[in-house]
Amino acid sequence: MLTQTLLRPRLMSALAAGPRLAAAAAYSTATATGDLAPRKVLITGSLGQLGAVLASCFRGHFGAENVITSDIRRPAAGGGEVALAAANDGPFVFLDVRDRASVEKVVVENKVDTIIHLSALLSAIGEREPQRALDVNINGLHNILEIARVHNASVFCPSTIGAFGPSTPVDQTPDLTIMRPTTIYGISKVHMELLGEYYANRYGVDFRSVRYPGIISADEPGGGTTDYAIDIFHHALKTGTYNCFLHENTRLPMMYIDDCIEGTFKFITAPREKLTQSTYNMGAIDFTPAELTSSMQRHMPNLSVSYSPDFRQKIADSWPNSLDDSSARKDWGWDPKFDLDSMVDVMFKNLKK
Ligand SMILES: NC(=O)c1ccc[n+]([C@@H]2O[C@H](COP(=O)([O-])OP(=O)(O)OC[C@H]3O[C@@H](n4cnc5c(N)ncnc54)[C@H](O)[C@@H]3O)[C@@H](O)[C@H]2O)c1
Ligand SMILES: C[C@@H](O)[C@H](N)C(=O)O
């Protein structure tokens, strides 16, 4: 398997250009597996927690002008440097994924061949607004798959540990198992996994998905159940205290953003023939709020955390403790690097900056 790490001239000039561009370019060193042929990429939901960073990674490899970012909102002041860069460092268009004609126009006019479909309502916000979650997560996906079928584009759309449910085996949850989620988010993601596979088998669409755990980064999270693991850092640095919305012993699978981006880029660029399934578990670390607190107390011995579980506790209780990701490791070389302590160290380093 051809593996290459590229530190492109574009990254070198971004680093020379100053801190904002350098922040955006930081992810362009991700490793590709195999196919680095030129691509024309459309990313939906680009201003969210993952989209901004993925856009930076793809622009670093394929050129800013070849990666169109899009969202239903404009980058807000205070939305973070990487989110601003996602909109400002290359083409950005306003797109509502529920509006098929608008998405299709962008794909056709720009000869897009790769769609990274990130627009979604996450687990907690989905339970607050189930009808809007259905609309965005289901109708948006239908539009993307149809456009990909008609215009011969590949699709990457992430799934989640939220696709599992209370009857799923909780430890080392395998790729193929009982999937009866109880949130609208999880139901929409199981639908996405199955429909994507149908489009692959029936129409030959190159559809790929991974089940991410909770992703931890310095950027603002989008309204999920794993958000506590980000919020806690911000509160700790501002006030030295945090009131966690999950119970102290709630174990969930998690992953640091650098591993997420590195793995996602590897997966999307992996040769098709290496893949034996359309959706893969992507595990990394797992911990409880109490364990995260202990690790953070290495930096802040006086950090004080209290616990007031709310409606998100029920969601968390329906998800796995840890994932079996052996197929991802075997098929396309998934190899996460961050453990709990190294993730905490880098989060403090970045946030203090
Ligand atoms: N962040 C995580 O921990 C995590 C874990 C597992 C899976 N995922 C998946 O990764 C993807 C991205 O997640 P994220 O954390 O960046 O989410 P996010 O909530 O931060 O970003 C989602 C983006 O979608 C946009 N959006 C909402 N409705 C839209 C519409 N109608 N049209 C176009 N855009 C719309 C929002 O404005 C937002 O910027 C999602 O599919 C999510 O399910 C994320
Ligand atoms: C796990 C993931 O899908 C998201 N962070 C959520 O909690 O909803």
TrEMBL record:
InterPro entries: Epimerase_deHydtase, NAD(P)-bd_dom_sf, NAD(P)_epim/dehydratase. Its EC number is 1.1.1.103. GO terms for molecular function: L-threonine 3-dehydrogenase activity. Gene3D superfamilies: NAD(P)-binding Rossmann-like Domain. SUPFAM superfamilies: NAD(P)-binding Rossmann-fold domains. GO terms for biological process: L-threonine catabolic process. It catalyses: L-threonine + NAD(+) = (2S)-2-amino-3-oxobutanoate + NADH + H(+). Residues 41-283 form the NAD-dependent epimerase/dehydratase domain. Pathway: Amino-acid degradation; L-threonine degradation via oxydo-reductase pathway; glycine from L-threonine: step 1/2. It is an enzyme of class 1 (oxidoreductase). Catalyzes the NAD(+)-dependent oxidation of L-threonine to 2-amino-3-ketobutyrate, mediating L-threonine catabolism. PANTHER family: L-THREONINE 3-DEHYDROGENASE (PTHR42687), L-THREONINE 3-DEHYDROGENASE, MITOCHONDRIAL (PTHR42687:SF1). Belongs to the NAD(P)-dependent epimerase/dehydratase family. This is L-threonine 3-dehydrogenase, mitochondrial. It comes from Fonticula alba.
